[in-house]
Specification:
The chain is mostly helical and about 525 residues long. The chain contains 19 helices and no strands.
Length: about 525
Amino acid sequence: MKKILFFLIIIIEIAATLFVACNKEVEGRTDNIGALSPSNIDLNAGTWKPILLTGPTEFAVAAPAATNTADYIAQINEIKTWQADLTKDEKAIVKYWSAGAVLRWNEILRDLVAKHNLPPYQNDDGTYPFPNANNPLAYPQFPFANPPYAARAYAYVAAAQYDALVAAWYYKKLYNRPAPYVVDATLNVLIPKSDLPSYPSEDAVVEGAAVEMLKLLFPGDQDFIQQKAEEHKRARIIAGANVRSDIDAGEALGKAVAQKFVIRARGDRAGAAAGNQAQWTQMETDAIARGQIPWYSLEVPRRPPMLPLFGKVKPFLFDSLTVIALRPGPPPSTSSDEMKNETEEVFSQTSNPTRENIRICHFWSDGVGTYTPPGHWMAIAAEDFVKKNYSEVRWARNMALVAMAEMDAAIVCWDTKYYYFNPRPSQMNPAIKSLTGVPNFPSYISGHSTFSGAASTILGHIIPERANAYVAMAEEAARSRFVGGLHYNKSDCAVGLTVGKNVGNYAVQRAATDGAE
């Protein structure tokens, strides 16, 4: 009965989230956008600086067959066979995928995060089970895609796609094989034509990289992932955009590059981020030894802390020593007047919530059943990138910069949270009633604020005319956690924004030196 009640609560929370989402969607949406038609094909992107690859030729791509061979002509005829009797569904998948490969796979990733962003229910003895990557379909399903896990997933997928596309662009320029519709003008072309060479296929490169990473990150969803991959490849052939050998070469390259990221992911220490009871107890003991009231879970029964060792995960934009250097100084002492005043400020806000405060609290809540705070910023980025008509390789580069900033912000934030182990406002004053669920990890510093500071900083660099808007969004996101009763304003939110900006500046430094600007 308790388990049924728990799931009813989860369903209600998700329904509330979806209801709020009616007013929460970022302006523009991507459901009905037109086909990607880059204003600049970035033909020299094969010279851009990759993230893990030693260079664009690390994985060889064989020279394609000439376009006058029997094999190539047979591949052209395959396109014509598909196009001879297109169904409504086939036309629909062409329209869907023509919006952009990087865009669509990031949306698929966000959907998977939302699906798996569900905390496990407790066992009968009051303990909590942990998801098991080796048995992903058993309850609780692997993964529990909480904010740190999600931020890491966004970063690995986006970074792998970017490196694979840098390599693809190198080979495109090297081999310069024209698109099928250039070779055979009788083809019915269902996507915008481009001067970009078609071998290897950029869409298949993105698909191949995404599939390998998503199989690692969401092992229980492999059938769904493979279904989307086959649909994506079929859409490119149906559209007359690629012949079969373009697709095969691109997919093989994407998968090969992704394996470098798979190897990195297996050794980045994320697998040990949950820690154990002895380590959790030590964090509490250390806080008490410093004369502080330690954080504890406000759930009943008390839930183990969320990924307390995520601060040890290997970042993308800097090394682990820099994580420590980016850690801010301590919050106010739990026995200080400053802490008392900050707690009273939270109580005052939650005791008299305004309609505007309720709006921003729910707009930025990104809780159970959503694609999390870093995913919210990935969606904001995608909405704005759609309007810029980027090439796929620039799309991937920009998404990778945002995603790596979000992952590294999670690492620095979680390092800070568990180093200080600071209690939430509602722990200091149980009379504080939050406007949304209270996250199961320490208060200092605010994760939303740190994610938002990082994302707004790199996005402001990528699209400078929108920089002020991104700053305003970040400040609102941070404020939402204060007015919602989840964080102290001055210490958690303001410091979190500053730390996030510091992380974001590392992404800006990379952007300025990667050869794309």
